[in-house]
Write a structure and sequence with these properties.
It comes from Spirosoma terrae. This is Glycoside hydrolase. GO terms for molecular function: hydrolase activity, hydrolyzing O-glycosyl compounds. Helix content is 25%, strand content 25%. The chain is of the alpha/beta class. Helix 4 packs parallel to helix 7, helix 11 packs parallel to helix 12 and helix 17 packs parallel to helix 18.
């Protein structure tokens, strides 16, 4: 029986949730971040695998996801063909070594992406349609597996064919499943089957599923003028593709995985189907955070070479397709490919990563996978083997020595997020048929619902606009599809989902088209007491060509009867209607605070991230009452929050949260002690107590190239201004100064040391005592008052920069490090990589460095 590679729970109680198979569990292992692990040429051996896994475990990683890809030039004799006996032995050894270290192992069910390889014949390869002599005929796309590993090259699979999927997995039946030590989960990357829009049996399936022969409406199918007939036929075309993808690929693949005791991790985005339903089939739905969200956090740097127009930006509304499927169905884990191309190679700082992770948490993600870590032999000179896309989380990365700080932060957050269940009030229906009625932009003339360019398909739709407003105003919600509506029921507490989540209302965005079956399901729920709100008007048309007018008339009849029910409302002002309902709202979200609300037993838990530049501190009203405490995952400290009587009789808690910071707030049942209710204008204000006036000494410590000089700085500035050598230095320098500390009027037990601008990580000592490491925005540390003296205080700050400045020199002197097959190494614009032309990046302690006092309310 296949091992699931789950670590033993040692003294920590975690929530343990199951799905139909009972296999998915949350553990200390899943609370830690995992990483993609690219096996370049699969040129692996047992000794190096063990060594690297030990490094990963020591750094605080919980698991690896193996992706075999292209190889490294000069190592051809060490390449191991995918699924060969030797390759399978390497995989089994990895699983065993991981188990010993308390780490999990996942595996892409193929090499590179998407699925395909030498066993994919032309009969089961990806296809598209074309018109030949007035008839629809089938032809191959001829797409090859992208970034394939040795033994994995070949045509891409037909994702719309169950027969193709059945034949594809046979290759693993005689190889992978024979192992006694196999992976926890198998994985499918985002849908990148470009140009594929057909299958060999498409016309037969279309006729069976839609009730008419597509060739009888060929003129409407080929029409690009958005005529009524064209829109309806194309809705049928997309519906058929979506069903074939769901039944032929997703259900078949996940069923195969479960039959063989594997979990399935699936990136459904990019697919020409309803993402909610496709994510719903996976044991672990997985979204993606590609590029930079460009938050307006002061001091947060964005790579100026990142092309938003080309690659788009991460968006929580896209991420919620994965988390919504998990929330509605009770799946305990939702994962994410994290920080792909956040910035250029050798330039990403930990301070840039944390806000992206926080955004994922607010979107319902609780199982972070770094993108990623190349397999690199320990004997390989720096920078080792490098994957073509950043970010590099491996031992050769400049932030590797400090990566455990980020890992511990994520582990603390995910421990809480995985042990709690969603507490959202709204279910927002996704009207995909309206999307299918619009013009397409994707390859092959189909709507591919990708996470990159939501501005092209999601945000312009009434659904997207409404969800943006809901999010901005502080409403918590999940999405629901036509199919998932069938699985809802109604209880005294509200609308019950199959996974046990309870919602208070179903919200139908303005939609032109709605299937009869969907309205019938809404009618069923409404008659059981479910509250349903239609935005603007009831839909008047069904999607699809077959008997359209007859079915639309029936839809109108059902709608008129539905409107007569007390729990149904058609609203011209959704937000006024919501305010009049029992739907909770967190009004402080309008100040730019992102959040997710969850429950664990009788405790309500908020994760709040300040990813904007509006809020810093103040009294905020929570939608739940009780005893409130704050947990800071960065410092692992819990404090009780002051509570006062606020407006409209609502209790308010005091929250201090600077841009870039995050925290948990837990509310437990009980009567809180109410404070005197002093005005927020006179309490809790940070006050600058001291700006360090003296000069600084800088001493270069370890780094590349070797630099052992020192200098006196009248004021803080980038060390790149000190000398030509310093412009290329990557490593650590020590900043030292002395200061007197004024007597304080307050009885505070600690002060805040604000380091200002840091490039990039600062380890701080006060009077010889370590007070912590500042690695994320804002760069602040708490300083115990007992460590400070009236005169003669000594402050030492060891600052480590990123490796970009050294790469400017290294790339000029050693261009041979770029020795990889396929795409080799490219920059963030996908152009040949050349760091020698970069300008020197500011490095070191830029300040200003100040002490602050804080008067608690």
């Amino acid at each position: 029986m296949r091992h699931l590679v789950l670590a033993v729970v040692l003294g920590i109680v975690f929530g343990s949730f199951g799905i139909a198979t009972g296999q998915v569990k949350t553990t200390p292992q899943t609370a830690k971040p995992w990483t993609y692990w690219w096996w370049m040429g699969s040129a692996a051996n047992e000794k190096d695998i063990t060594y690297q896994l030990e490094q990963f475990a020591q750094a605080g990683l919980g698991g690896v996801h193996i992706i075999p890809i292209y190889g490294v030039k000069g190592y051809e004799k060490q390449f191991i063909p995918f699924l060969s006996d030797r390759w399978l032995a390497m995989l089994a050894h990895t699983v065993r070594a991981g188990r010993r270290l308390g780490m999990g192992v996942d595996l892409t069910l193929g090499t590179g992406w998407p699925f395909g390889g030498p066993n994919v014949t032309s009969e089961i390869a990806a296809k598209r349609w074309k018109v030949d002599n007035g008839k629809l005929v089938t032809e191959l796309t001829k797409q090859q597996v992208k970034r394939a590993a040795p033994g994995g090259e070949g045509l891409v699979l037909d994702y719309f064919s169950k027969r193709a999927m059945d034949q594809y997995v046979k290759r693993f039946d005689s190889t992978l499943i024979t192992l006694a030590d196999g992976p926890r989960a198998v994985y499918n990357d985002s849908y990148e089957v470009f140009g594929a829009n057909w299958s060999a049996n498409f016309l037969d399936e279309f006729n069976k599923r839609r009730g008419y022969d597509l060739t009888t409406q060929l003129s409407a199918f080929l029409d690009t003028t958005q005529s009524k007939a064209s829109i309806l036929v194309h809705q049928d075309y997309h519906q058929t593709l979506a069903e074939l993808l769901h039944d032929g690929f997703t259900t078949t693949w996940t069923g195969w995985a479960r039959n063989h005791k594997f979990l399935s991790r699936n990136q459904a985005h990019g697919s020409p189907g309803n993402l909610i339903d496709l994510y719903a089939e996976a044991d672990i739905p997985e979204t993606e955070s590609f590029g930079s969200s460009q938050f307006p956090i002061p001091g947060l740097r964005v790579d100026p070479d990142y092309e938003v127009d080309r690659f788009g930006m991460p968006n929580t509304l896209a991420m919620k397709f994965a988390s919504s499927a998990a929330h509605v169905l009770g799946k305990p884990l939702v994962s994410s490919e994290t920080t792909t191309w956040l910035a250029n190679h050798f330039q990403v700082a930990l301070s840039q990563i944390k806000p992206q992770v926080d955004e994922l948490f607010t979107a319902g993600i609780n199982h972070i996978f770094y993108h990623g870590t190349p397999y690199s032999p320990p004997a390989e000179p720096w920078p080792g083997w490098v994957f073509y896309a950043s970010t590099n989380y491996g031992p050769s990365s400049h932030f590797w020595p400090h990566l455990p700080l980020l890992n511990r932060y994520i582990e603390r957050c995910q421990t809480r997020l995985q042990a709690s269940k969603p507490d959202n009030d709204l279910l927002v229906y996704f009207p995909i048929h309206d999307l299918w009625a619009t013009r397409t932009r994707s390859a092959g003339g189909i709507h591919q619902l990708e996470v990159h360019h939501v501005e092209q398909w999601l945000l312009p739709q009434p659904f997207g606009k409404l969800c943006e407003q809901l999010q901005q105003r502080g409403y918590s919600f999940d999405y629901v599809s036509d199919d998932l509506l069938r699985k809802l029921s109604v209880t005294k507490g509200g609308i019950l989902s199959p996974g046990g989540a309870v919602f208070q209302c179903i919200l139908i965005p303005h939609a032109t088209y709605l299937p009869e079956q969907t309205l019938q399901q809404l009618d069923r729920l409404a008659r059981q007491g479910a509250r349903i709100i239609f935005d603007g008007a009831m839909p008047q048309q069904v999607p699809g060509f077959h008997k359209h007018d007859e079915r639309s008339a029936n839809l109108v009849r059902i709608g008129k009867a539905l409107q007569q029910l007390k729990s149904v409302q058609v609203s011209n002002d959704v937000f006024t209607t919501l305010r009049q309902s029992t739907t909770r709202v967190e009004s402080w979200a309008e100040q730019g605070l992102a959040f997710i609300r969850k429950r664990r037993g009788d405790t309500t838990q908020y994760f709040i991230a300040n990813l904007a530049n509006k809020f810093r501190q103040g009294w905020i009203p929570l939608s739940v009452l009780g005893l409130a405490s704050r947990y800071d995952a960065l410092t692992d400290q819990t404090t009780t929050l002051p509570i006062r009587n606020g407006k409209d009789g609502k209790n308010e808690v005091w929250l201090a949260l600077e841009p870039g910071q995050s925290c948990f707030i837990s509310v437990m049942p009980g009567a809180p002690a109410i404070t005197s209710g002093r005005s927020p204008q006179t309490t809790g204000k940070s006050t600058e107590l001291l700006r360090l006036p003296n000069s600084w000494t800088i001493q270069f410590l370890s780094g590349r190239p070797d630099l052992r000089t020192s200098a006196t700085l009248p004021k803080l500035t980038s060390w790149t201004s000190l000398s030509d050598s310093a412009r290329y230095f990557w490593g650590t320098a020590r900043y030292s100064t002395t200061f007197d500390f004024p007597a304080s009027q307050s009885a505070t037990t600690s002060y805040v040391l604000d380091l200002g601008d840091v490039r990039e990580v600062a380890e701080v000592r006060v009077n010889g005592q370590s007070v912590g490491t500042a690695w994320c925005l804002p760069y602040r540390l708490s300083i115990p008052a007992r460590l400070l003296k009236a005169t003669g205080n000594q402050l030492e700050i060891d600052v480590t920069n990123v490796s970009a400045n050294y790469m400017r020199l290294y790339d000029r002197q050693n261009p041979g490090w770029k020795k990889f097959y396929d795409i080799n190494i490219v920059d963030i614009r996908y152009k040949p990589y050349d760091a020698s032309r970069w300008e020197a990046r500011p490095s070191g302690l830029l300040g200003p460095v100040t002490f602050w006092s804080l008067i608690d309310p």
